[in-house]
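Dear support,

I submitted the protein below through the web form. The confirmation email said the job was done, but the results page showed an empty box. After a refresh the structure appeared. I'm attaching both so you can tell me whether what I see now is the final result or a partial one.
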Amino acid sequence: MNEVSVSAPGKFVILGEHAVVYGKPAIALAIDRRFNMKVKKDAVFKINNDTADIKTVPHIRYISGKNGMLPVSVQMDSKIPTGSGLGSSAALSVAFSAAMRSITDRPLNEAEIAEEAFEAEYFAQGRGSPMDTSTSTHGYGIALNAQKNEEDRLWNITKNEHVWNISHIDVPEMTFVIGYTGIRASTGPLVEKVRKYKDRNRFAADIVDEIGQITLEGMNAIRKNDVAALGELMTKDHKLLSILGVSSKELNKLVNASLPYAYGAKLTGAGGGGSMVVLTDDPDKACSAISSHGGVPFVVKTGVEGVKVIEESE
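What the results page shows now:
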């Protein structure tokens, strides 16, 4: 095959941020904002029609290295805002992994795509978990570090001393509003901040345990499509994350402004900036509240499929 078009979804973390670092469960949901990519064999590497040095694009460089550095032309069109904590780089890695497998006539094995894309993310960033790439690959929803029925287990991914167990969650279609603060915050310092707090304060360790329990309760709420219960857990989780010190005045402002029109709201991702998320059946009012308080809102839906080949040609 000489050419293929692939699409992979973005994601957000609905419950479990930071606690997942300590082996607690976390839940991520795929959203209907997608990273679209067309890849075709070429004489030299090109990105969006320009000759490219892939050493400057580490995700593509890593995956290309796993495919014999076959030169390709890559056209990218992302509907996932960069720097928003919604998994844009993971979706890029997942889409490119699937595309390279297609044009080299290899099976589109989800577990292998998720792991290869995770390794590309790790290569590019020097840290991370497979949560984003597993969600983008599989779609719908995934749970990390959660005890699930054996039939729901998807795959395990290991890296150094870490082992992540990835499971499927059935996710109904729900409407969320994302509020982007416009602030890009680095994950590493925030994770380190929580670690130091937890190490010196039993209260912080108890909060981490409570976030883990909330996440398990949230899994049950999602299964039952109980949006009221899920929203209440989201808001509670945000308060606990704020106590851990990973929220910000901008995130808190957007959360508080949106709550009158929501089942619940919280930061999503590492915190410090990035985005917050609102579960609502009145997205217009939630968007207006976020916009009027300095955020950039957009509506997303869940229950969407993962990576897919959407067009093939010889």
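Response: this is the final, complete result; the empty box was a page-load delay. The domain at 3-171+304-313 is CATH 3.30.230.10 (Ribosomal Protein S5; domain 2).
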